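Support request, please re-run this one:
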Amino acid sequence: MKKEIGVFMVVSAVLLSGCGSDDSGSANQGAGESPSNQVATQPQQETKQGTTESGQENKIWSSENNEVKVSPVKVNKYGTPEVVSVEVNGVNKEFNWQVAEEPRVFYTDVTGDNKPEAVILSNIGRGSDTSVDELHVLNSEDLSEIKVPNYEKVVAEHIETQVTKNDDGNLAIKVKAQGEDYEFSYDVDPGVKVQNKLNFGGTVTYVLDNQKIFSYIGGSIGTSPIYVCRFHVTYKFDSLKNEFIVDQIKAESFGK
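Re-run finished. Output below.
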């Protein structure tokens, strides 16, 4: 079934740091803008002071009631943590995670087994046209990591795109997400070089809302990315595989 995604303008928002709540929201953004600025609203996250193994003073980020604590163990020459320690109810484990910005830390049940997990959302890189989040879900008892498909896997397995540039500069964009077809158009300047498929990886945003995990993956054209659409991905936990899988994908156009 084909859908026409109409031209629309949406409101841009920025990520708000916080922690420990099951509830967070999201807002759309304007046409052609980076689709990374989602809103995630939580109670104020508690930050404490700690030290790395080299004796440098660093912050400790924790969930609302301090069940989960994240602290830097090793930082690179730019001061960015590249090894962190995660402590959940007294159990401690180190991970080779890069944390470019203050992470959002949660202690909540996202698998539906009535046992809370440790959820850490962190930004690993941000620029004028890019913003990439990373998501980690840990079993709160042994701190084993529960897999969540990254954006590369989502795109490779569930999304197909085709971009055609007409003589007038108008782009005809066809998208198939989970077998559902979308078609929309986007006007670009004649000088913009356009590939025949959408680019991904410039913006990836994760949101935790009502104990559910979502992501927003931006699709762009051009070498200096122009974001023409985004994909809203919903995940669900597969108890047999003991990992999260893609539940739904919806495409939204930033056509103009």
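Helices lie at 151-158. The longest strand covers residues 226-238.
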